[in-house]
Design a protein that fits this description.
By secondary structure, the chain is α/β, with parallel strands linked by helices. The protein is built from ten helices and twelve strands. It has two domains: 101 residues, Ribosomal protein L30/S12 (60s Ribosomal Protein L30, Chain: A), CATH 3.30.1330; 158 residues, 3-Layer(aba) Sandwich (Alpha/beta knot). Helix 7 links the parallel strand 7 and strand 8. The model has no long low-confidence stretch (mean pLDDT 93).
Length: 269
């Protein structure tokens, strides 16, 4: 049976309550739920993610575009279909994509379980920009990373904007949160994964490293990784033209992931 279509003409309908004041709820959380936005992200959530869809909110002109997705969803998933004015009233701003999904986070992954047997992991320390986190998850998916570890200060990968920027990759790439940077490094040590700190002050270049299980650690733009992390890691830089010493952190993650996964593929041949 396909998803259950429910036509709604009022923003006050109780079933729409989880979608109300969306920007404010993005900041305070939704008690184990998240909102994914846009057709591309919905398709990833429905077809590739292990996360469960609880309901959909669709602008009525978008129903046909996602009809194939609706047909494959279980009948306990309700798709609330509304006019544009109601959707804007519910979420609190004009939203033109017309496709929202309410998903369940499920039980959080244990960091040690994510790291066990991994070949390439991304570690995020103090990364608070949702655009950068979303882009890093997209790169992690593109280059086949085994997962992402985050410290407590890094922002939520299931924040709506991070999911959107990741093109849905945040719904697919496994991630786990550690208590702090030291706990993250301890997790890697227990799993026998070498931590690589990406820093302009690196003594080696990323393309010079031999293949091995590695975690690529990234810090916030500007300050970068803290000294306490750099002291416990192998410091590596991305080689650049003279006069430049840094890249956007998301761009740096893509280059580093490309080099790390390429080295492993060459070694496997």
């Amino acid at each position: 049976m396909p998803a259950r279509i429910v036509h709604v003409d009022s923003a006050d309908h109780p079933a729409l309550q989880p979608y109300t004041a969306m920007r404010e709820r993005d900041l305070v959380g939704r008690e184990g739920l998240f909102v994914a936005e846009g057709e591309v992200v919905l398709r990833v959530l429905a077809s590739r993610s292990k996360l469960k869809i609880r309901s959909l909110l669709l602008e009525r002109r978008r129903v046909d575009a996602v009809g194939d997705v609706l047909a494959k969803l279980p009948d306990d998933v309700s798709a609330y279909v509304v006019p544009q004015s109601v959707m804007d009233g519910v979420v609190g701003f004009s939203i033109h994509r017309g496709v929202l999904a309410l998903g369940e986070r499920g039980a959080p992954l244990i960091p040690s379980a994510l790291a066990l047997g991994a070949s390439v992991i991304v570690g995020l320390i103090g990364l608070t920009n949702h655009d950068n986190v979303g882009s890093i998850f997209r790169n992690a998916a593109a280059f086949g990373a085994d997962g992402v570890l985050l410290d407590a200060e890094s922002c939520d990968p299931l924040y709506r904007k991070a999911i959107r920027v990741s093109a849905g990759a945040a719904l697919v790439v496994p991630f786990a949160r550690c208590e702090n940077a030291d706990a993250l490094l301890d997790t890697l040590a227990a799993a026998k994964i070498e931590p690589i700190a990406l820093t302009p002050r690196g003594e080696e270049t990323i393309d010079s490293l031999p293949p091995a299980p590695r975690a690529l650690l990234l810090g916030t733009e500007g300050p970068g990784l803290p000294e306490s992390v750099l002291r416990r890691t192998r410091r590596v830089r991305i080689d650049m033209a003279p006069g430049l010493d840094s890249l956007n952190v998301a761009v740096a993650s893509g280059i580093a992931l490309h080099e790390a996964t390429r080295a492993l593929r060459r070694h496997a041949k």
